[in-house]
Automatic annotation (TrEMBL):
<keyword id="KW-1133">Transmembrane helix</keyword>
<dbReference type="InterPro" id="IPR007686">
    <property type="entry name" value="YutG/PgpA"/>
</dbReference>
<protein>
    <recommendedName>
        <fullName>Phosphatidylglycerophosphatase A</fullName>
        <ecNumber>3.1.3.27</ecNumber>
    </recommendedName>
</protein>
<dbReference type="InterPro" id="IPR036681">
    <property type="entry name" value="PgpA-like_sf"/>
</dbReference>
<keyword id="KW-0460">Magnesium</keyword>
<feature type="domain" description="YutG/PgpA">
    <location>
        <begin position="8"/>
        <end position="146"/>
    </location>
</feature>
<feature type="transmembrane region" description="Helical">
    <location>
        <begin position="45"/>
        <end position="67"/>
    </location>
</feature>
<keyword id="KW-0472">Membrane</keyword>
<feature type="transmembrane region" description="Helical">
    <location>
        <begin position="79"/>
        <end position="105"/>
    </location>
</feature>
<dbReference type="InterPro" id="IPR026037">
    <property type="entry name" value="PgpA"/>
</dbReference>
<keyword id="KW-0812">Transmembrane</keyword>
<comment type="pathway">
    <text>Phospholipid metabolism; phosphatidylglycerol biosynthesis; phosphatidylglycerol from CDP-diacylglycerol: step 2/2.</text>
</comment>
<keyword id="KW-0595">Phospholipid degradation</keyword>
<keyword id="KW-0997">Cell inner membrane</keyword>
<keyword id="KW-0479">Metal-binding</keyword>
<keyword id="KW-0442">Lipid degradation</keyword>
<feature type="transmembrane region" description="Helical">
    <location>
        <begin position="133"/>
        <end position="150"/>
    </location>
</feature>
Length: 156
C-alpha cells in the first residue's frame, strides 16, 4: 500500500526528476483543473474539498516514507491544489488563462510569500498540502484581478 501511495504522491515518477519536480508534478493538475472547470462552482468546491482531504494523508505517508518533511519528490500537493487557482472561473478553459494560472501558482509556490513560508512549521501532511493551497489561493486572487482589469480595459 505504501508503494502505491508513494507512486501517487510522486506524480507517477515526476517527483523524482532531478530538476523542477514541483513544476513537472504540477502539470498533472492541468487536466484535473480542465475537467473540474466543466462543473458548477459548488461541485468544484466539493471536488476540491475531497482532493485536499485525500492529499493530507497521502503527503504525510509519502513524507514518512522519504524520511523528511516536504520532500521535493512529493508533488501530489501541487497537482491536487493547482485547480484552486481556476476555481469558479468561467474562462478557465481558455489556454492563456490556464497558462497564466499555472505560472502564478508556480511563482507563489516557489517564492512562498507570507504566510505560506510559515505554514511549513505546522508539520506533517497538513503543512505539505496547505502551503500549496495558499499558493493556489494567491494565484486565484491575482488571476481574478487580472481578468477583472482585462474585462474592464481590454475590450474597448
Amino acid at each position: 500500500m505504501d508503494d502505491a501511495v508513494l507512486l501517487f504522491a510522486t506524480g507517477f515518477g515526476l517527483g523524482w526528476l532531478p530538476w523542477s519536480p514541483g513544476t513537472f508534478g504540477s502539470l498533472l493538475g492541468i487536466p484535473l483543473a480542465w475537467w473540474m472547470s466543466g462543473f458548477t462552482r459548488g461541485s468544484q468546491l466539493g471536488i476540491m474539498t475531497f482532493l485536499l482531504i485525500v492529499a493530507v494523508p497521502i503527503c504525510h505517508v509519502a513524507s514518512l516514507a522519504l524520511g523528511s518533511g516536504d520532500a521535493p519528490q512529493i508533488v501530489a500537493d501541487e497537482f491536487m491544489a493547482f485547480p484552486i487557482a481556476l476555481l469558479g472561473l468561467s474562462v478557465a478553459r481558455q489556454p492563456w488563462v490556464m497558462a497564466l494560472a499555472f505560472i502564478l501558482f508556480r511563482l507563489f509556490d516557489a517564492t512562498k510569500p507570507p504566510p505560506i513560508d510559515h505554514i511549513e512549521a505546522i508539520g506533517g501532511g497538513l503543512s505539505i498540502a496547505l502551503d500549496d493551497v495558499m499558493a493556489a489561493i494567491y494565484a486565484w486572487l491575482v488571476l481574478v484581478a487580472i481578468l477583472s482589469l482585462w474585462r474592464r480595459h481590454g475590450r474597448r
